[in-house]
Amino acid sequence: MIKIGEFSKLVQISVPTLRYYDQVGLLKPIEVDRFTGYRYYSASQLPRLHRIIALKGLGFSLEEITKALDEDLSIEQMRGMLRLRHTQISQELAEVQNQLQEVEVRLQQIEREEQLSTYDVILKQVEPLLVASVRAILPDHSAVGTLFAEVYEAIVPRVNEALGPHPGEGGTTLVLWYDQEHKDENVDGAAAFMLRCRVPDCGRMKVHELPAATMAATVHHGSYNTIGEAHEAVLKWIEANNYRIVGADREINIYNSTPIRRDDPSYVTEIQYPVEKSV
């Protein structure tokens, strides 16, 4: 029999780790002195310990390792565990590679502009969103504000249930831009209200669901007159990180106050572009 200290040196695993393996039932000593509490191990336990080390090195959890050792898994079951672990590692590797690419883009941006960007662009998953909107070809981007009154008027008969809990405050609004390239005039846009439930279509106001999507998003804290800077930052990020736009971009009004002023610097707007990775 080998004392725990000597066994620790032999296998190059710390005593606290061996004690923990005993505690969770992964590798129990062959004997524990009932008077001193000393733990004793045997050379016959080395193959099990080596299997533990090998599986741990592959990234399996102690719970998974215990199951693999104690349930005497078949070759096919072990093959399944390894295939699952292969998939997990591949996903982790892809995430790390994406992070590396984003770091490289940030570095290039700093070196090119010699300053930090005001806008931090992130990827986020958004759920489907029910909205009531009026879409029109507008003389310019600022004209979209004139459509909100038309949307609200169409919702009024069911405004309490559609926009609650504070319908008098107008609910959450957003703007949708459908043009696939930048335009300064004759722009295709829509004013929309987020809905809690469906309401009947009315005139130009249509109720529809915006699909779930992966969004490249940033937050603009400033006036609507300067919101183009936020769009530019997101578009640069999309190009630099090898994504492509796959739908209408959104301007979600997180905070504004009435009457709406295009030069109010206190407004907060989230810019979202639906994207997918380019092939």
Question: Brief description of this entry?
Answer:
This protein has 279 residues and is α+β, with helices and mostly antiparallel strands. It contains 8 helices and 12 strands.
> How do the SSEs run, as a string of H and E?
EHHEEHHHEEHHEEEEHEEE
The shape is elongated
Question: pLDDT under 50 segments (min length 5)?
Answer: none
Count up the domains. 3
Strand content: 15-25%
What fold name goes in the CATH topology slot of the largest domain?
Answer: Multidrug-efflux Transporter 1 Regulator Bmrr, Chain A
Question: What Rg, in angstroms, do the CA atoms define?
Answer: 30 Å
Which CATH-level-2 architecture of the largest domain?
Answer: Alpha-Beta Barrel
Report the oligomer. single chain
Percent range of helical residues: 25-40%
Arithmetic mean of pLDDT:
89
Q: How many E-type strands?
A: 12
For the biggest sheet, the summary is:
9 strands, antiparallel
Q: Can you characterise this structure?
A:
This protein is α+β, with helices and mostly antiparallel strands. It folds into three domains: 2-70, Orthogonal Bundle (Multidrug-efflux Transporter Regulator, Chain: A, Domain 2); 73-116; 122-277, Regulatory factor, effector binding domain (Multidrug-efflux Transporter 1 Regulator Bmrr, Chain A, Alpha-Beta Barrel). It contains eight helices and twelve strands. The strands form two sheets. Strands 4, 5, 6, 7, 8, 9, 10, 11 and 12 form a nine-stranded antiparallel sheet that branches. The chain is elongated, with a radius of gyration of 30 Å.
